[in-house]
Amino acid sequence: MKLAKPRVDVALFTATAEPMLQFWQQEVGLPYEEPLPTGGGNMQHRHDLSGSVLKLNHRRDGVPEAPPSGYREVWIARQGVTEVRRLEDPDGNRIVICPPGTDGIEQIGVRMRVRDVAAHAHWFGHVLGFEEVAENTYRCGETLFFIEPGDDVAEDAGIAGGGFRYLTIQVWDCDAEHAGVLERGGREGSPPRTLGEVARFSMVCDPDGNWVEISQRASLTGPLPTDR
Known about the structure:
The protein has helices spanning 17-27, 117-127, 174-183, 218-221; strands at residues 9-14, 32-39, 42-49, 52-59, 71-77, 85-88, 94-98, 108-114, 131-134, 137-140, 143-149, 163-170, 187-195, 199-205, 211-217. The chain has 228 residues and is α+β, with helices and mostly antiparallel strands. It has an 8-stranded mixed β-sheet with strand order 2-3-4-1-12-15-14-13. Strands 6-7-5-8-11-10-9 form a 7-stranded mixed β-sheet, with helices on one face.
């Protein structure tokens, strides 16, 4: 993929905005960037996450019951930290703050539970084209992904439930990258569309049905194409 930003963004959904915002801003220490209405009663509260974006999506009408996604932990490397610190936000999402270099993490890392490690190795290494840097460890720009097998992983848990639900990869050409993922065996979640003058984006799904957003954001790439 031709990245427009060398870091991957992380998105979660919640029905309780205030305690979540307080936790992520005060306990984790993430700077608040902006609110972004994304339609359907969803307000996305964007935070700087070591150069990535933590997208805290507040759903006005609540969050439906659903199994957790395969995205289980977000690790944050932070200067001045000397030991691993494990946290849980008010919704039970797991966050780990660690010294830079922990397991190779210099920016952020996402730990995943998967049903089939080999299928996900193909997904990350071939379909998305990420670099394999160690066994079951893949790099997209500065962001690392760690995969491990689990018997508690739901197939097609969906994007609408609570917790960590999707990742965003910022690219120069959403349509071209989306088509490439499908050609290499990825599954379409939703086709490319344009959100005003903000971004053109699509969704694809990994072998377990976890969602990945492919985004062409105007602030990074310039004027957007219209729907084709």
